[in-house]
Amino acid sequence: MFLQSIKKIKVTNILLVIASLTIGVESLSPGKVNAHGGGNDEPLGAGEFRKTPYLLLEGHHGVENSKENSPMHHGLEAGMGIVMDWGLKNEGIFSIETYLSPVLVWGEADHFYGVAHHEEEEEEEHEAHNTDFKRVDLRGLLRFKYSPNERLSFSLDSKPHLVTKTQGEEKKGVKNEIGAKALYKLGEGDVNFALGDQLSDIIDGTFLSLEHRQGWESDGKWQGHYTDPRVGVKFNYDLLSFKIEGGPRLYKPKSGSGLSNRTDFAGEIEVSRPIGDKTELFFHWQPTYSDKDGDEWSQGWNHHIGTGIVFTF
pTM of the prediction? Predict the structure, then answer.
């Protein structure tokens, strides 16, 4: 079942990843940017300020095997963001990040996790589940992050998504999700197997996290919430950076959805590589697994993958 679900991921996205990771090492030098955003890991002195504008180009693809006919979605975005950091005592940092991007949408736009729509008309179902180009939406991000020291961090974020046109089960309006996350690093996080670190050193790259998210569709209706307790590791091999994390997803749907409280599995694998000091290529894969839940949600693996490049200024 897992291998069959993987086959539905578009080959073009995989080729983009392979191309990005086979760039010659001689053209690269260690950078300080972070994949999938413009943050900077360099410490700041108390009272110091730093701003990091960035440009993000990303293509993403998803398949929801738990829904009838396994609907897919594809997106292409090119957006601008900025991260503003204020240095605190004990090497702490307070950050504000904003991001805004148009999104070209094929198939369905991203939904909040676990949303199962009830189709009343066959024509509407076909319109919602085909993968033709649909429209240009607008996606945003606002995140606040507080790190009292190098190992502990807390963040709050909002991810609004403007649907610009009513099409099938997509309704014109603003959908949104909000989240809160705590993360604790068990070690210093500087693990590089190409520089002599051993597998026993992986504890330095291990972290624990707890994230809670809630979502609303564009009609303003609350869709439910989930909580992710996770264990993860981050490590490098030369210039390649890897992050692997996973754990149970405690999901609670909205009332009247035909779904029940359940425990799924959710994880993420992210690979990134710098090109110079201010550019980074990245790829991430987010698999989830669910058991059957009511008439509208089947047992299966669901996938979201994305690949792109981020430039900081």
Answer: 0.85
